[in-house]
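Limitations
The structure tokens in this dataset are predictions for the assembled complex, not deposited experimental models. Users should treat interface geometry with appropriate caution, especially where small molecules or nucleic acid strands are included. An illustrative entry is reproduced here so readers can see what is and is not provided.
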Amino acid sequence: MRMTKGVEWAVHTLLNLAWLSDDEPVPTARLAAGHDLPAPYLHKQLQALVRAGLLESVPGARGGFRLARAPEAISLLDVVLAVDGDEPLFRCTEIRRCGSVGAACPDGSRAFALPCAVKTAMGRAEAAWREALATQSLADVRAETDAHAPSVASAVRRALGDG
Amino acid sequence: MRMTKGVEWAVHTLLNLAWLSDDEPVPTARLAAGHDLPAPYLHKQLQALVRAGLLESVPGARGGFRLARAPEAISLLDVVLAVDGDEPLFRCTEIRRCGSVGAACPDGSRAFALPCAVKTAMGRAEAAWREALATQSLADVRAETDAHAPSVASAVRRALGDG
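Predicted assembly:
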């Protein structure tokens, strides 16, 4: 069980756009070259980020992608859900109702009226994960990088900026 | 991204053994029939639970599986790691070092001396998830089920007990 690598690509690409911050759209090819990523696959992730309202797509010869919101308003949860979808980590298939145990429950509908306690417990853990993702923004990750590796911001501008 | 269904099977099977609580080993076929699960696949999960020290395997004609520890000492994290392994939800492949951005970092080794802030942020969320799984035991899930659906415990004993 793990996130797709598209999540890693998307967060780093959004971060790079947050460092550029001059609002000029950046074409997919230049964003992909930024971390040596395959442009067609990255493009699919970027389109998913547009659908989720995190990026704007600007058409035309000087078009490309730019952030649709301030980095403070883009959480890691936004990115994970945009790229990997909103399915729960644990999917309950209600096996409690099946087989000899399910059949032995004399009051079937009452025994199963409340959500399965396994699902509930797994859901509590997933809620903690989502909460921790939701409370960390792109701006937070940018600030932590700036504090630990201050040369990265200018490197991004040199590598991906428009001139 | 989601857990394998083996996790659901494993938690419910461990729960059933926790309800039986008479220390008699239960054969795979009877455990599988408990929730109408495919016995060969369930058997693989049970073997993984034995390797993780959560179940004991008892050989012989009246053999089978029983809990190796008290339900209070088996956490949901123990079960998830036993079945799905210990890989992180987010795998950092260090793309920050690659491509035009990586090449533009003038002090390569210093810029990358500390862990990537994306990895660190994702790791915080995963730690919250693991902590919430680690602090919920099989005994907790059993108690919640007993409170919400008190007929389940005796149904499990009728369906899976030895007599």
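Some entries come with short summary sentences. For this one: Chain A touches chain B through 74 residues (CB under 8 Å).
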